[in-house]
């Protein structure tokens, strides 16, 4: 039996014109018109028996001329002074019976309504039954609960977990809109799965509060961690220089404005290949020695590279009568200075760990097992790995996050077809390291890596969840590959424009909701959700540490005192760790 058993006399109006997925309905009863609301659902008669078309009201117009006649039906919407119209965007079809199943909703339009077909308001008990169908259909093994529908608070809103991560997702919202709250809600449900596998790039330590057996917290090593000799067993992560690609090394150590930059890059690459060859020879890895490249993740001694560069920079060669300067004499000085400067920078200690910390052949396997081992894997530690990048200097942040992203992608790429275990990357504050406009070599490197993940990641089981308060500042290629959108309140016009471009044409009017969404309320559209609509996100068990400070309350509290002396000392020591 159909859950939408309307009678013709209940119709609020009849179809006036049809244009692809948009329908214009004429409403003659003014009281019915007054009762309608924009963004509410309606049902329309279909030309197929047992089918009803579901639509969203986008525009309502009431005029004083109730009996006006419209000569040109195709221009009915433009004739606003002459007719009462409701513009509706069709979003799917409710089928009374599909095989053995009854009341099935599909995001397809197998037909469009005929002229003069009846249109009915979907409200009250009928709305409750319809939302129940939506929840039941999406509540399969792939279900992931976000909260409840704004249309019906009693109907739980689910998204399809497979499609959400397979086809990438974009979570956006202005500061204080509930973006981190939504992310935490997703992470908690991921962490509950037996073989969960996700990595969170945490820029400000917001997700330190996420707790449970499914979570592992890691921190990129800061100066205090290095002084204390902390390592992986302490949850402290080193990311040694030898993990970087050739392009990343060039962007970090070679000044492109130097007229000798091409020679410096060439000689540095030659010295690095020689150093890696020496390491593999000494370790006896003949199989790797025959096929490795400069980008292969093979440890090498930085001292050997510097020694070779210094030799070339001071080289004297035999001349016609006496010795003369070599071809590269004095041309590598700035490169060597940059090497020395970076290596002695205490903030970059995680890149240049002391001997024995991250320079062995087996170290990479240990780190990969930690980051990519699922909760149920042999070496697995937890389903969700939260990596805190808060102590990484901002100027090289894109380079370091890109290094981790590259490592994940290549491990998945080089895994056997049937042995790949999918992993999702949650890119918090993505505009910081996947910017639209690259202002440095570090940013260019990160953009190239994440663009490749966005375009090819699905083939290798790598999903992206891009999270940002400024979608207009996130790389457009990456954003365009996100086929699922969770948009919280956005007040900036440029950011709203980005989201509107991602909406289907039939749902373009949803973009007008962006500045008026409530805190914790989201507009959810995409492959993963059956009914594109507004959803009120449920509260996570452990709220993220968003850092929002109640200004007025703190100013009014006479007992509040700032520990400025400790802040100054932390600034000097370049660490927040006591």
TrEMBL record:
Instruction: Tell me where in this chain the Helicase HerA central domain is found.
Output: 151-404
Q: What is this protein called?
A: Helicase HerA central domain-containing protein
Please give the PANTHER family that the UniProt record associates with this protein: HELICASE MJ1565-RELATED
Which SUPFAM superfamilies does UniProt cross-reference here? Answer: P-loop containing nucleoside triphosphate hydrolases
Q: What is the lineage of its organism?
A: Bacteria, Pseudomonadati, Pseudomonadota, Alphaproteobacteria, Hyphomicrobiales
């Amino acid at each position: 039996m159909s859950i939408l058993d309307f009678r013709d006399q209940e119709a609020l109006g009849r179809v006036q014109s049809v244009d692809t997925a948009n329908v214009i309905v004429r409403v003659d009863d003014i009281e019915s018109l007054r009762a309608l609301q924009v963004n509410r659902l309606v049902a329309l008669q279909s030309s197929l028996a047992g089918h009803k078309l579901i639509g969203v009201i986008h525009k309502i117009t009431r005029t004083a001329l109730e009996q006006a006649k419209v000569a040109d039906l195709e221009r009915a919407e433009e004739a606003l002074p002459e007719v009462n119209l409701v513009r509706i965007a069709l979003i799917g079809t409710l089928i009374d019976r599909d095989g053995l199943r009854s009341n099935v909703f599909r995001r397809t339009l197998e037909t469009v309504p005929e002229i003069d077909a009846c249109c009915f308001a979907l409200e009250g008990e009928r709305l409750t039954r319809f939302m129940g169908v939506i929840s039941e259909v999406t509540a399969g093994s792939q279900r992931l609960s976000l909260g409840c529908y704004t249309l019906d608070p009693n109907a739980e809103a689910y998204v399809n977990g497979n499609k959400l991560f397979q086809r990438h997702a974009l979570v956006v919202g202005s500061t204080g809109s509930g973006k981190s709250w939504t992310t935490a809600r997703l992470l908690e449900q991921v962490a509950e799965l037996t073989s969960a596998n996700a990595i969170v790039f945490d820029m400000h330590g917001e997700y330190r509060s996420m707790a449970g057996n499914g979570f592992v917290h890691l921190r990129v090593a800061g100066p205090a961690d290095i002084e204390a000799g902390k390592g992986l067993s302490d949850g402290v992560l080193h990311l040694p220089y030898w993990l970087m690609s050739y392009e990343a090394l060039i962007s970090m150590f070679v000044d492109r404005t130097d007229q000798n930059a091409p020679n410096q890059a060439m000689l540095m690459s030659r010295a690095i290949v020689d150093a890696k060859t020496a390491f593999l020879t000494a370790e006896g890895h003949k199989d790797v020695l025959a096929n490795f490249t400069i980008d292969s993740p093979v440890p090498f001694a930085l001292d050997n590279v510097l020694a070779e560069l210094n030799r070339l920079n001071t080289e004297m060669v035999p001349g016609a009568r006496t010795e003369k300067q070599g071809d590269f004499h004095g041309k590598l000085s700035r490169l060597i200075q940059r090497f020395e400067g970076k290596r002695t920078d205490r903030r970059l200690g995680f890149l240049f760990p002391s001997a024995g910390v991250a320079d062995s052949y087996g170290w990479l396997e240990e780190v990969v097992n930690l980051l990519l081992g699922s909760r149920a894997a042999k070496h697995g530690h937890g389903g969700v790995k939260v990596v805190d990048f808060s102590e990484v200097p901002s100027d090289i942040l894109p380079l370091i996050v890109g290094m981790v992203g590259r490592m994940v992608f290549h491990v998945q790429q080089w895994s056997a077809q049937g042995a790949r275990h999918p992993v999702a990357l949650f890119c918090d504050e993505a505009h910081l390291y996947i910017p639209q406009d690259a202002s440095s070599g570090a940013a260019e490197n990160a953009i190239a890596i994440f663009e490749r993940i966005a375009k090819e990641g699905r083939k290798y089981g790598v999903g992206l969840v891009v999270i940002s308060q400024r979608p207009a500042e996130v790389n457009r290629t990456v954003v365009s590959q996100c086929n699922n959108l969770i948009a919280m309140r956005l007040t900036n016009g440029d950011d709203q424009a980005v989201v509107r471009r991602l909406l289907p044409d039939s749902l373009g009017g949803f973009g007008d909701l962006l500045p008026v969404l409530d805190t914790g309320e989201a507009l959810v559209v995409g492959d993963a959700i059956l009914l594109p609509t507004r959803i009120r996100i449920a509260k996570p068990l452990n709220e993220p540490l968003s850092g929002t400070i109640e200004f007025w309350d703190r100013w009014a509290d006479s007992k509040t005192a700032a520990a400025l002396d400790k802040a100054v000392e932390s600034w000097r020591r370049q660490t927040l760790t006591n």
